[in-house]
Design a protein that fits this description.
110 residues, 4 helices, flat
Length: 110
Amino acid sequence: MNWIFLFIAGILEIVWAVGLKYSSGFSRLWPSVITLAAMFASFFFLSQAIRTIPIGNAYAVWTGIGAAGVAILGIILFNESADIRRIACIGLIIAGIVGLKLLGSASGLQ
């Protein structure tokens, strides 16, 4: 269950990071409210996950989900570069997330 909490925390990190762009420096009310709510919820779920997942693994997975997700949404929503090297680097981040999850499962962590 804690890996599910960590995944939710990572998705919410994507929401708040993209929300920062839409909030225009917290000058727009509703995007700012959504961003702050997603921040709070992301930290809450991360705090639940680290009860059993080592903090090093949890933080790396959390930031990895956020980094890869925001980079992908940057390409989709904001017309950022989709250069093959950039895509390859995003793939490396995702490979690291999967590796940490597999290592966490192999060591008996829940």
